Amino acid sequence: MKPSRWLAAGLVAVATAAALNVVPATAGRPYDPTTQSLRDLAKRHGLYVGTAVDMAALDNAAEPRYRELAGSEFSTVTAENVMKWESLEPTRGTYNWGPADELVAFARQHQQRVRGHVLVWHNQLPTWLTEGVADGSIDTAELRKILRDHITAVVRHFKGQIWQWDVVNEAVSDPWDTPSTLHYKGFWAQHLGPGYVADAFRWARAADPKALLFYNDYNIEAFGSGNPADDKTQFVYEMARDLRARGVPIDGVGSQGHLGTQYGNYDTLQVVAALRKFAGLGLATAFTEVDVRSQMTAGVQAGDSAEINPRLQASAANFSTLLRACLAERHCLSFTLWGFTDKHSWVPGAFSDPPEGLATVYDENYRPKRSYQELKADLIYSGPPFVLPRVPQQPRR
Ligand code: G3I
């Protein structure tokens, strides 16, 4: 071969290795993918793997493992609480950026992207806002202005530092709500009507034209009956389709992925079908808050392996279902866990009758569980032709 051909062949080999993110074997030590972190294994797929971060745990010097793993295993982070309205603007017009800025700095230090959570939600609102509306001192026109000002201030503050914003969170009711016909629910729909959703996306886009803007919700992992009156995924799909049709700058739909081993849950193909349908609207998707909780029976609490093992196994299967679906759909950009250790999970605090727990991929002593190993295996043993790198999403103008 001519020297120029050798050079060309060498360049192709290097480029291919780089594209596949193949790590060469070091002297005497073959490359072992099972020792790699989730974030490194996900890189080959162009996928970001993330976690919600509890700032109190991150700052706890007595618990260094939390910080180590948050930095080494994940390529994207989400503030579990500190970017919510009650944290950012506890007093009207006075912002407390400290903890959220600290997370953004942590992400920069660890070459991580940030998912911003959350601009508009009916929970964790400051009392000055909810009480002002309740006692009539804040009227509808003022409330709309307050919402616009908050979105503008927050998105501007973090401009250029947030990859994906959860602009609107959990706007849609559940079949167990009253009335049972699905509808726009909660504080914002009640006081401003459903038009606030489109407004919020437009205000967010104006404040940071480069951030990807997401609608985020739970129980939308798969389609049901196809009737928007009782199928939440269909309701959200039609909402996103209408927003797109009206030129509202929505770029993605986030599926939270809060599952439980006591439920029927889904198979991978159902979840792929849902992601694909959203992609058909020109939208990116992401799993944004994945965890899989289990009922903590007396047997589980007493350490009975006959009760614990099936839960660990079912949990791993559910994590895997969502990750494999995400890998299969090229517009699924990131896979974020809602916390990574049972030591710091919202689940025990939120479900006490019956108690629930075991929801994350590391146990309370930071030992990786079967679910962690399965996530790893999915990242290792998948690839072309059915699993290809992600298609980057461009913010819609
Ligand atoms: O900050 C106060 C603290 O001052 C007080 O001493 C303590 C006593 O209970 O409460 C602290 O606030 C708690 C807050 O988390 C911060 O730790 C609240 O009680 C508690 O309710 C709150 O829970 C959060 C929950 O959202 C609120 O709805 C969870 O940590 C958080 O994981 C959870 O996250 C949500 C997502 O944002 C949206 N999707 C569902 C997901 C799970 O509910």
Automatic annotation (TrEMBL):
Residues 1-27 form the signal peptide. One of its GO terms (molecular function) is endo-1,4-beta-xylanase activity. Its EC number is 3.2.1.8. Pfam families: Glyco_hydro_10. It catalyses: Endohydrolysis of (1->4)-beta-D-xylosidic linkages in xylans. Residues 52-378 form the GH10 domain. One of its GO terms (biological process) is xylan catabolic process. Keywords: Carbohydrate metabolism, Glycosidase, Hydrolase, Polysaccharide degradation, Signal, Xylan degradation. It comes from the Bacteria. Belongs to the glycosyl hydrolase 10 (cellulase F) family. The lineage of its organism: Bacteria, Bacillati, Actinomycetota, Actinomycetes, Micromonosporales. InterPro entries: GH (IPR017853), GH10 (IPR044846), GH10_dom (IPR001000). This is Beta-xylanase. Transmembrane segments: none annotated. It comes from Micromonospora humi.
